[in-house]
């Protein structure tokens, strides 16, 4: 998704300080620590917008909705919300559609939508047995789609597909609770 400079300028004007940006990011479902300090508001917002567009804990839609809650009459925010792609929930895949079953495919889709490749590796490392999971993953330059698929197969094979995994996911991405719970209902008996 290209960086819309009119939106970046608007966000920089509305939330010029890092603490303001951090508060908005948290209201949109992210964690404050994900917002790095940056004295240049436009640089800060350009980075945050790219993060949200590339699978961070805050989606572009959630970020815009949180900003609109503060600035309900802002035409730039309204226009951006109309044009931002909506996050699509992973499709329900039947056993017949994949020989390995739907579980690795659905879990991989969820992981890809929640994390960047680096964030996924960090998340997995902090799970019980995370060092072993990390050692079993493919190399550092592996694309996110392949990494999330391999991670989902490992998580299932090693018995991690349960309440503990989904609690950890909710702890990392509370703003995505509905998506996480939906996948949990489909995958965990």
Question: Mind explaining what this structure looks like?
Answer:
This protein is mainly alpha-helical and 189 residues long. It folds into 2 domains: 79 residues; 93 residues. 62% of the residues lie in helices and 0% in strands. Helix 7 packs across helix 8 and helix 10 runs antiparallel to helix 11. The longest helix is centred in the C-terminal third of the chain and has 14 residues. It is elongated and about 50 Å long.
Topology summary:
Blueprint: H1 5-14, H2 18-27, H3 41-53, H4 60-70, H5 75-83, H6 102-114, H7 117-125, H8 130-136, H9 144-157, H10 163-172, H11 177-187
Helix pairs in contact: 1-3, 4-5, 6-9, 6-11, 7-8, 10-11
Tell me briefly what this model is:
This protein is mainly α and 189 residues long. It is built from eleven helices and no strands. The protein folds into two domains: 5-83; 95-187.
Q: How far apart lie the N and C ends?
A: 37 Å
| DSSP strand content | under 5%
Using the alpha-carbon principal axes, give the shape: elongated
Query: What is the number of strand segments?
Result: 0
Total domain modules: 2
Please tell me the overall pLDDT. 83
Radius of gyration: 18 Å
Order of helix and strand elements from N to C terminus: HHHHHHHHHHH
Helix vs. strand class: mainly alpha
Number of helices: 11
Major sheet: size, sense and barrel closure? none
In percent, how helical is the residue content? Answer: 55-70%
Report low-confidence residues grouped into runs of 5 or more.
87-100
